[in-house]
Amino acid sequence: MSLRSPLRRVTYLGSAKGGSSHWYAQRVTAVALVLLGLWLVVSLATMGGTSHARVVAWLASPVAAALAVLLVVTGAWHALLGLQVVIEDYVGDKGTRLAVLLVVRFALVVAAVVGVLAVLRIAFGVAA
Amino acid sequence: MAQRARPLSPFLHYRWQYTNTLSILHRVTGVLLSAGFLVLVYWLAAAAGGPERYAAALHRLSSPLAQLVLFGAAFGFCYHLLNGVRHLFFDMGHGFELATARKSGWAVAIGAVALGLSVWLAVRAGLGGGA
Question: How many Cβ pairs within 8 Å bridge chains A and B?
Fold first, then answer.
């Protein structure tokens, strides 16, 4: 049961309710991205060239494809949570804030879907 | 009923210290890395589109401006990673003593420059120069 009155909530002084799960998800994705980010850097440094064949060969490995999908999804999620905080802190006007938040969310979800499909396409040998 | 004025963000009324520069840099590099993330997706999508599209995308990514952005992303990656780990320790309640926070802050700043350069050079070497 909440101790805040409904009036307090509608006048913008109540809890937004999702704060702790947002905070927690930001940290969980951060820990995952430490590992996935280091994996990406090591992969790029050791894949032996940027030729199309090299990239396809890299993501043809099921482990690399799985990690790449995880990196794309976790990266988009973490970026979404982080950009949301930045936007909410610095964009004062409510209408602009809503518009910017929507654009950023749509862009990151689209990027995540495109990224996952791209990895799967390569992993399943469609792009070879 | 008139709405009460909302509280201001801390940067509007606190004295400037280098620790808040570190904190702001965390946000700046986070935004930079979001742009870098879009470049990563663009690169993957180009590779999935076949050799010709991939070659065209690589050509675009080899322009001086794109290289500058990628270098910024390499530094941003290292800074955000190191400072992110620092913040995870803060979240667990460690390292709040002023001297410790200063030391870890300097370690992050120096580490990010050193690691950023090495990551940039290692990735470039691994990708056969030119990117």
Answer: 105
